């Protein structure tokens, strides 16, 4: 399953430009975008319950990329459930 609609917007990716100094602000903006896609997030959370999922990214930086941010977002949402 590829939910490409859950990726950060093109504008947000361009603004971030993989600059670690912008990481916290990137996550805040991306999380806000994800909050507006609640149906897709629910679908992904449902698929993630009780089984592993794979989040792919194309960035060279393993710590500051959209998959790492999405993982953090999902973990917070699953912890609240």
Detailed description of the structure:
- Helices cover about 55% and strands about 0% of the residues.
- The protein has 4 helices and no strands.
- It has helices at about 10-15, 25-35, 40-50, 65-80.
Task: Give the topology.
Blueprint (H helix, E strand, L loop, with lengths): L9 H7 L6 H13 L2 H11 L17 H15 L1
Provide key terms for this protein.
81 residues; globular
What structural class results from the helix and strand content?
mainly alpha
Q: For the CA atoms, what is the radius of gyration?
A: 12 Å
Distance between the termini: 23 Å
Q: Helices and strands, in N-to-C order? A: HHHH
Summarize the structure.
The protein is built from 4 helices and no strands. With 81 residues, it is mainly α.
């Amino acid at each position: 399953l590829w939910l490409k609609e859950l990726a950060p917007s093109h504008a947000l990716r361009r603004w971030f430009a993989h600059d670690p100094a912008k990481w916290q602000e990137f996550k805040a903006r991306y999380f806000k975008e994800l909050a507006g896609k609640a149906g897709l997030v629910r679908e992904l959370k449902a698929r993630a319950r009780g089984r592993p999922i794979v989040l792919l990214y194309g960035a060279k930086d393993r710590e500051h990329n959209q998959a790492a941010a999405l993982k953090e977002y999902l973990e917070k949402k699953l912890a609240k459930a």
